[in-house]
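Field reference: "sequence" (input) and "structure" (output). Example, Nicotinamidase:
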Amino acid sequence: MRTLLIIDVQNDFLPGGALEVPGSDAIVPVINRLIGIGGFDLVVAAQDWHPAGHGSFASSHPGRAPFERIDLNGLEQTLWPDHCVQGSRGAEFSAELDTRRVEAIFRKGMDPAIDSYSAFFDNGRRKATGLADFLRGRGARELWLCGLAGDICVHYSARDALDQGFAVNFIVDAATPLDAANEAAHLAALRERGARIVTSAQVPADTSP
């Protein structure tokens, strides 16, 4: 079963958002086209869903600024601007994203004491989101990943998917990085772990009559 996993295509990561990923709006039509070609048996999404005052927010640590690093409950943590707060407009999926075929949404980052980049686990791998079990229950074996940000949440989701035994395809033109300078290194690391780095043109279309 070929599965498209759409990660964090939310307003706060898009232009004008609290944690804008440069050029992120360009991937939305690419993802919509991938959904439209009908080559996927299953479409699933992940959504950052932080409570107000989350421990990963710089505002939760007086005197600290966004993008500083601290120790948060035993893990190195980059501090972020407040983003994807539960129930806020910033946490909503882009209005331009076609979500009609999304069968399930897995929310992450809800524990205020630990961040969750991956759609599968929190950063300490202390709690699972249930995504892996859901995919296995549906018979999914081959995952195609896209979304935001390519070098953070999509990257760590791809790593965990590989660790969970899934075949992983990272759609590079549908996963914009926050830090473009490190994109090549992140892609090389995924390739070394066994992921395929592909473009949207390599995604098979539905060829059934």
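The chain is about 20% helix and 20% strand.
The beta strands are 2-7, 42-48, 69-72, 75-78, 102-108, 142-147, 167-171, 196-198.
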